[in-house]
Amino acid sequence: MSLRVLAVDDESSLTELLSMAMRYEGWEVRSAGAGAEAVRAAREFGPDAVVLDMMLPDIDGLEVLRRMRADEPEVPVLF
Question: How far apart are CA 48 and CA 37, in angstroms?
């Protein structure tokens, strides 16, 4: 079973590069470009880890973290 990672950033070129590197390692990756989309993706995808940007177009990374942790309090998050 591969590691599932959610990559969240509004800069699509950064998200694509990060996702490519993680897929190269054999990980399953989903990406999101906004906070609400990230929260929704986390609920659906159930990531083992999240790489999260602080400055997103709709809600900031700390609010995204708060909402994710309400559903999954133990998920590791890297800002």
Answer: 17
The label of the residue with tokens 């509004």 reads 10
Q: Which two tokens stand for residue 4?
A: 């599932």
Cα separation, 13 vs 71, whole angstroms: 29
Residue 41 and residue 6 in contact, taking contact as beta carbons nearer than 8 Å: yes
What single letter denotes the amino acid at residue 17?
L
Q: How far apart are CA 6 and CA 33, in angstroms?
A: 11
The string of pLDDT tens digits covering residues 13-28 is 999 999 999 999 999 9
**Cα Rg for the chain, rounded, in angstroms?**
11
pTM assigned to the model: 0.94
| Token pair for 79 | 């800002």
